[in-house]
Design brief:
With 304 residues, the chain is α/β, with parallel strands linked by helices. Helix content is 35%, strand content 22%. The protein has 10 helices and 13 strands. The strands form 3 sheets. It has a 5-stranded parallel sheet with strand order 5-4-1-8-9, sandwiched between helices. Strands 3-2-6-7 form a 4-stranded mixed sheet. A 4-stranded antiparallel sheet has the order 10-11-12-13, sandwiched between helices. Strand 6 and strand 7 form a beta hairpin. Helix 9 crosses helix 10 (288-294). The longest helix is centred in the C-terminal third of the chain and has 16 residues, at 247-262. The chain is globular. The two termini are 32 Å apart.
Length: 304
């Protein structure tokens, strides 16, 4: 089983109107509520790839009930801990410019945290846990890291989609894959890259520090995958990018889901690139037909 973790999900309130006039009453007849969260995005892609998964996290209040209703509607299996506080609402305004107002998140009690950690007792060898997204402000900043010893003791694999020191702190536990983009990779080592060869040298350091696989996303310039044995490159798919939200989550989902089935990092990389591109080319998280349309474009070349 693959488990996705979204500890601070949101009910996204999306409003579309031609123009927002500040300081005035603005009206829209086009609005929707959407279940939001990076781990939820991963689950959506896994469902499109027909890969069993369960979404974990915290939900509460009437907004939490609506979020779960939407997950059920999308046939996403979930086992969230119900909390006493209310799941946050993020406001997305699509007008002459896109504006987002994101809430910080609910208060989560020690008892609710304990209830979540008890979910880890379900883990067994071969499972994969994907943790992504922001933490609610009441959670400790090392919350994800606190889960890693239990995950590894169960014989499961994990992915933490994060950056900076929080990413470096996971490496001793040997994450299945990490996915910095080229800018984030440079920031990790407080440097800049004047060539792809130099960039790959730094990516190799992450392998030596514990990562099993390193994916580097480079937007329109494609991406790289470094394994313990080889380095692969894939050119970016051709298309019009209309959405950056969820593309990275889709890339992670494509890699993890394919690896779960095949244990082939090259094929996993190819599917990850396809899923990321498919979501970038649509206004929402990609569906199966969109992924299948992009996949033939993705050609993976072993460069070392």
């Amino acid at each position: 089983m693959i488990y996705t973790v979204t500890v601070n999900p949101a009910l996204d309130y999306v409003m579309q109107l031609e123009k927002v006039n500040a300081g005035e009453v603005n009206r829209t007849n086009n609005y929707s509520f959407l279940a939001g969260g990076k781990g939820i995005n991963v689950s959506q892609i896994l469902n499109q790839l027909d890969i069993d998964n369960t979404a974990w996290g915290f939900v509460g209040g009437f907004t939490g009930k609506e979020l779960i209703r939407q997950l059920n509607q999308k046939r996403i299996v979930s086992d969230f801990v119900t909390i006493s506080d209310v799941t946050r609402v993020n406001v997305k305004i699509h007008a002459q410019k896109e504006t987002e107002i994101n809430a910080a998140g609910p208060q989560i009690t020690d008892q609710e945290i304990t209830a979540f950690k008890s979910r880890l007792s379900d883990l067994k060898k071969g499972d994969i846990v994907v943790m992504s997204g922001s933490l609610a402000p009441s959670l400790p900043t090392n919350f994800y890291q606190e889960l890693l010893p239990t995950i590894k003791e169960a014989g499961a694999e994990f992915v933490v989609d994060t950056t900076g020191q929080a990413l470096l702190d996971t490496l001793e536990y040997k994450p299945l894959v990490i996915k910095p983009n080229h800018h984030e990779l440079a920031d990790l080592f407080d440097t800049t890259f004047d060539s792809s060869d130099v960039m790959l040298e730094y990516a190799q350091k992450l392998l030596k520090m514990g990562a099993q696989n390193v994916m580097i996303s480079m937007a329109g310039d494609g991406g790289y995958l470094l394994t313990q044995d080889h380095v692969y490159h894939a050119k970016a798919a051709v298309g019009t990018a209309v959405n950056s939200v969820g593309a990275g989550d889709s890339m992670i989902a494509g890699f993890v889901g394919t690896y779960f089935k095949t244990h082939n990092p090259e094929e996993s990389f190819r599917m990850g690139m396809a899923c990321g591109a498919a979501t970038a080319f649509t206004k929402d998280i990609a569906v199966k037909s969109q992924i299948e349309a992009v996949l033939p474009q993705i050609k993976v070349e072993q460069i070392s």
